[in-house]
Specification:
By secondary structure, the protein is α/β, with parallel strands linked by helices.
């Protein structure tokens, strides 16, 4: 953070630089990317293609920011740090160098395939560069965290949403709007406002594929891995629709605990595992009976029913504790899952 007793005059001089100057500066290591400054979206390949198309059409794009970096006092050679615009500049360099990481569709010619006049036009394209000058590193980082405002007061899903808008995120967002959730009033308005519904659905997709994990630890890894494409989207949607249909057919009471997020999460995961992974047939009436019976057992435990057997009490105690304390932790999720798997087995063939 900035020392409250120190004040800097932050100058932001805007100049025009040609793309060829940026490429030369990168090759000479005079322009250095600083990823720790970056607060913006991680681009998909589609984003990159559209950006290249913008330049080839000679259309404008937003300015980039740099500041003074390190200077060698003996040689007087210095560097600039690219503090905002990393995706734009790296895409320009990928296109110019023919990097395999940039996959161009037929409608966008590779740089090597451009005519000499087209290459000159690309290299002479002017970019607006705003220079912050020479200010302390921590000061610049603080300025940009405030400008981009994706750090302050945001939860993990909101932060991830600020960086990723790719395939698996869009799939999770779409599934979170499924009428199954709205009919059961699973998500509150505050959940939707803070992207809790998308976080819940993303956790479901990851768990269905890879098993239980802690909190949202895996979110960013999967958002990055499946930013360009999420090949399993149709399969996962079909599997979830099967689970939703089974729960609808079971006709569980609207006031049931099984519509609460922590309980529903475990129920969906284990029912999906029974139906789609283990290929077991689940009878809707038997499922309703089994879930209602287990819920009644939990209510008896919470009411300190002295008639419960030691086995019933132990089972209810384990589930209640896993549902109440650290409900999003891997250990708690595994415990709930193991117990609900037993409940579901009693309703399946």
């Amino acid at each position: 953070m900035i020392d409250s007793g120190v004040r800097y005059e932050l100058k932001t001089n805007a100049t025009n630089r040609r793309i060829r100057e940026l490429i030369t500066a990168i090759n000479q290591r005079a322009l250095v990317s600083r990823p720790d400054f970056q607060r913006r979206l991680v681009w998909t390949n589609r984003d990159k293609v559209e950006f290249v198309d913008t330049i080839l059409r000679a259309l404008p794009f937003p300015e980039i920011y740099v500041c003074a970096g390190e200077v060698d006092p003996e040689t007087a050679q210095g560097t600039e740090w690219l503090v905002d615009g990393q995706q734009r500049v790296s895409t320009i360099y990928e296109y110019f160098s023919g990097a395999q990481s940039l996959r161009l569709p037929p409608r966008i010619p590779a740089y090597a395939a451009l005519t000499e006049a087209q290459k000159r036009s690309f290299l002479e394209y002017t970019v607006v560069v705003r220079d912050l000058g020479s200010v302390p590193l921590d000061y610049v980082k603080d300025v940009f965290s405030r400008i981009n405002s994706t750090k302050y007061g945001l939860n993990a899903m909101e932060l991830a949403n600020a960086r990723y808008d790719g395939a698996i995120k869009r799939s999770a967002a779409s599934l979170a709007e499924h009428d199954f959730y709205s009919r059961r009033s699973v998500f509150k308005a505050s959940d939707v406002r803070r992207m809790g519904d998308v976080s819940f659905q993303l956790s479901l997709l990851i768990t269905m594929e890879a098993g239980y994990f802690d909190d949202t630890d895996e979110h960013e890894r999967y958002l990055e891995r499946y930013n360009d494409e999420y090949p399993r989207a149709p399969e996962m949607e079909a599997r979830l629709n099967s689970v939703f249909a089974a729960l609808d057919s079971a006709d569980i009471a609207g006031a049931s605990r099984w519509w609460k997020k922590a309980d529903l999460f475990s129920l969906i995961v284990e029912l999906d595992r029974a139906v789609s992974v283990d290929s077991r047939a689940v009878d809707p009436a038997a499922l309703r009976t089994a879930l209602t019976g287990f819920e009644q057992l939990l209510e008896r435990y919470q009411g300190h029913d002295g008639e419960m057997s030691s086995a019933e009490r132990e089972r209810a105690s384990r589930y209640s504790l896993a549902a109440a304390q650290g409900s999003n932790h891997r250990k708690s999720r595994i415990t709930r899952g193991e117990i609900l798997a037993e409940v579901i087995r009693s309703a399946s063939t």
